[in-house]
Design goal:
alpha+beta, tt1808, chain A, seven-stranded mixed β-sheet, two-stranded antiparallel sheet, 6 helices
Length: about 260
């Protein structure tokens, strides 16, 4: 069974953590075969830690654990004698950390210089708190580096967190879902894609180096693949969507579902 919606299915947002992971993997796979030879699509991740307040805090791992040869027995004896009273305190974390993936297109011939960053926005990026603050900081870092930034927002939670301020986006482009592309070369150029509930998701032109042609990303096929491989054909379309729909979107969703005999 396919989703009853022509574009993004709002009922998939309830399972965003899984959908997000699938989208990142599928996007990386789709780009890998389309990129010119020196460029590679690499999947990176940040760790999300839940605080007592319920907010998610983003942590970008930059520590590598390496294994060194075991020290000699005499060295061990000395170390034990010195640190006998320094036993570690054992702590049990209250929540399991989550990981959140994103894609970097890098140039393998120039020391893996980052050419383009592709983000699928999550609630942690859009809701007030540490996660959003860190995401906004990362936006600035990417733009200042001269790299391209592609932000794909298929989640209605929170407020949009595009690098392009909302006040610069025309009213007719403020659709339920949106895509925003910042081109590092020429600098200062944004592209906004409309993605209303009633249409298929648009193909997105992924910018690369200045001399490269854009790569076309068929976003709709990736969402369709998430729906099929996740076996979401058991979604309860008689219930309200989660997160709740705005009034206008709720009317559109009801019309679509009634037309498909799902309500």
């Amino acid at each position: 069974m396919k989703s009853p919606f022509p574009g993004m299915d709002p009922y998939l947002e309830k399972y965003w953590h899984e959908v997000h992971q699938r989208l990142v993997i599928y996007t990386g796979d789709a780009l890998q075969t389309a990129l010119p030879p020196p460029l590679r699509a690499r999947i990176e991740e940040r760790v999300l830690l839940e605080e007592e307040s319920g907010d998610w805090r983003a942590v970008y791992p930059d520590v590598h654990i390496v294994e060194f040869p075991q020290p000699s027995s005499s060295a061990v004896a000395v170390e034990t004698a010195v640190a006998v009273d320094e036993e570690p305190v054992l702590l049990t974390p209250q929540n399991e950390p989550r990981t959140e993936g994103f894609i970097e297109i890098v140039d393998a011939e120039s020391g893996n210089r980052v050419i383009t960053v592709i983000e699928f926005l999550s609630p942690s990026n859009k809701l007030p708190g540490w996660g959003r603050e860190q995401y906004v900081k990362k936006q600035g870092d990417v733009i200042r580096s001269g790299a391209n930034l592609v932000e794909i927002d298929l989640n209605r939670s929170g407020q949009r967190a595009f690098a392009l301020e909302a006040r610069f986006i025309p009213a007719n482009c403020r659709t339920t879902y949106q895509i925003c592309v910042w081109r590092g070369n020429p600098a200062g150029r944004f592209e906004v894609y409309r993605a209303p509930l009633t249409r298929r998701l648009p193909p997105v032109r992924i910018p690369l180096r200045a001399a490269d042609a854009d790569v076309r990303l068929d976003l709709q096929s990736l969402v369709d693949r998430c729906y099929a491989n996740g076996r979401y054909d058991d979604l309860n379309y008689r219930a309200d969507a989660n997160p709740p729909l705005e009034t206008a979107d709720a009317a559109v969703v009801d019309e679509v579902l009634r037309g498909k005999g799902l309500r």
